[in-house]
Amino acid sequence: MNLEQMKYIVEVAKESSITKAADKLHLSPSAISQSITQLEKEFGVTIFTRSRQGTIPTTDGKFIVSKAYEILKKMQELHEELADKQNAKKHVLKVGCAPALMYIVYDAFLLFHEQFPETNVMIREIDQDHILEEMKNGHIDIGLSPFTDYEVSNLQHEKGVDYELLYTGHVCVCAGKKSSLYYKDFLTPDELSDEKLVIYNSKGGMSFNDKYVKNEQILFSSNNIEVMRSAILDGHAFSFVFNFTFKNNADVKNGNLAIIPFKQPDLIYQDFWTLYPITKGLSVEAKEFKDKVKYLLDQ
């Protein structure tokens, strides 16, 4: 078993397809298939099975793929350490984060930049539905996004992504001072069903409303946070946010906006995760950036 073969089986496991893996590696499907057959003969086990779901690792295959990830990760670490020692290039850190985290992530950048002024940080707001694809394609080094325990439990073998719990938040209502909701200690679905709502234009935002409130009084949906904030400040609508989304925002601190817990009947919790490619791991800079985000969330 050589490094090239390790890359082949890792890519097939990520894509659940020999054809897609071959296309990504710029090889023919037959070359990938022959390589896997040679490995299966070498180890005396079946690594993949073909089904309607695609090319899926067997139990033995999952073990072999996980070991291949470990070895490739170590090789990547070796390359990075050598590159660091030689100062071969300026560090670049590409961050992808969920919309709810954007304010916190920018504040974390300000802290990070003081410590690592030479690191070129590029931050992209990416919806949960697309962040894994962006990571798989190498467009981001670290992702910060909400997922359920079930969703993250399948990331390692299926997507080649490792994860750490970043923070557990809960859903709140954001209301302006002109709104009748402003002075509530907490809010329930019944109290919101007839109120005007502005909602983030994402699958998650829409599905949350459909599941918990079924509010049909949607003033508008948008990906423009500032327009949504204006509608809330003017008292025309409320929005769902997390307890941390606007925690350091000036309008919250000066009392123009209120962040009110939403209960149904209890608080609704959501885990947020740090995601990164298994083969690369977290660089020193990525770890520091993640720690600063976590520090701000935990305050």
TrEMBL record:
<dbReference type="GO" id="GO:0000976">
    <property type="term" value="F:transcription cis-regulatory region binding"/>
</dbReference>
<keyword id="KW-0804">Transcription</keyword>
<keyword id="KW-0238">DNA-binding</keyword>
<dbReference type="InterPro" id="IPR036390">
    <property type="entry name" value="WH_DNA-bd_sf"/>
</dbReference>
<comment type="similarity">
    <text>Belongs to the LysR transcriptional regulatory family.</text>
</comment>
<dbReference type="InterPro" id="IPR000847">
    <property type="entry name" value="LysR_HTH_N"/>
</dbReference>
<dbReference type="GO" id="GO:0003700">
    <property type="term" value="F:DNA-binding transcription factor activity"/>
</dbReference>
<feature type="domain" description="HTH lysR-type">
    <location>
        <begin position="1"/>
        <end position="58"/>
    </location>
</feature>
<dbReference type="Pfam" id="PF03466">
    <property type="entry name" value="LysR_substrate"/>
</dbReference>
<protein>
    <recommendedName>
        <fullName>HTH lysR-type domain-containing protein</fullName>
    </recommendedName>
</protein>
<dbReference type="InterPro" id="IPR005119">
    <property type="entry name" value="LysR_subst-bd"/>
</dbReference>
<dbReference type="Pfam" id="PF00126">
    <property type="entry name" value="HTH_1"/>
</dbReference>
<dbReference type="InterPro" id="IPR036388">
    <property type="entry name" value="WH-like_DNA-bd_sf"/>
</dbReference>
<keyword id="KW-0805">Transcription regulation</keyword>
